[in-house]
Specification:
InterPro entries: KaiC-like_dom (IPR014774), KaiC_dom (IPR010624), P-loop_NTPase (IPR027417)
Strand order of the largest sheet: 3-13-12-11-10-5-9-8-6-7
Number of domains: 1
CATH class: Alpha Beta
Organism: Candidatus Sysuiplasma superficiale
Protein name: AAA family ATPase
Distance between the termini: 34 Å
CATH architecture: 3-Layer(aba) Sandwich
Number of strands: 13
Shape: globular
Keywords: ATP-binding, Nucleotide-binding
CATH superfamily: P-loop containing nucleotide triphosphate hydrolases
CATH topology: Rossmann fold
Structural class: alpha/beta
Pfam families: ATPase
């Protein structure tokens, strides 16, 4: 599949993970808020960045990668390792290190809450140079920095604000899919979709990365878990075969 695809009813954005787009009926429905969830080391940031980069490089979308944790230099180095050269997508993709932005807005943060400043900054970005795709990396850091007092209510209003951006949004989360669903985490209900990344033991000495769509509204998606690989310059999702 190439670029943003469209079925009879829903415009979709390709993940550029071979085999996984087919499991999503062509990709992520445009305009949805999707959690990219998994424990550390499962390549959440890389997957989110890959989706934005591959589409931006083809001019399919215009997007912003907003990092709250990893600095820009580190992220660009990580991108290059997986064949993503920012200069080939720079017309349609921006990387913003919000840690640096905060340092330049010290006077403003003294008068407004961290979350208010965050929203104001993103709204200004949207107005000055419109985008239709946003990655926020990560929800966990955002929560910590914002010091949410009433998590359920504040997350609800935060997701409502995200919907008001009229953009497709990926939120990375350190929570495993099991924790999100079995513990009834609020963001699992508020999000339109959940893409789970995990590290699976397959023997005493072998492990595999896995990818799975837990939830995706307006999509008849596969519930299967796929082995997640990067080979020959591309990401692939291959049907996982469990050992007896």
């Amino acid at each position: 599949m190439e670029g943003a695809a469209e079925d009879t009813a829903v415009k979709r954005i390709a993940t550029y993970i071979e085999g996984f787009d087919a499991a999503l009926e062509g990709g992520i429905p445009s305009g949805m808020i999707v959690l990219v969830a998994g424990s550390p080391g499962t390549m959440k940031s890389t997957v989110a960045c890959n989706i934005l980069y591959r589409n931006a490089a083809r001019g399919s979308i215009s997007g912003v990668y907003l990092t709250l944790e990893q600095n820009r230099v580190s992220l660009e180095r990580q991108m290059a390792r997986f064949g993503m050269k920012l200069e080939t997508a720079k017309e349609h993709m921006r990387i913003i290190d919000f840690g640096l932005v905060r340092k330049n807005l010290k006077q403003l943060t003294a008068r407004k809450s961290w979350l208010e400043v965050f929203k104001m900054y993103v709204n200004n970005l949207k107005e000055s140079r419109p985008f239709d795709f946003l990655v926020i990396d990560s929800l966990d850091v955002l929560e910590t920095a914002a010091h949410l007092q009433n998590r359920r209510d504040e997350l609800f209003y935060f997701f409502e604000w995200l919907r008001g951006l009229n953009s497709t949004v990926l939120l990375t989360s350190e929570s495993s899919a099991d924790k999100l669903v079995s513990h009834g985490q609020d963001e699992a209900y508020l999000a339109d979709g959940i893409i789970s990344l995990a590290i699976q033991d397959i023997s005493d000495v072998e492990v595999q990365r896995r990818i799975r769509c837990i939830k995706m509204r307006t999509t008849n998606h596969s519930m299967d878990s796929f082995t997640f690989l990067y080979e020959n310059g591309k990401f692939m999702a291959i049907k996982a075969i469990s050992k007896p």
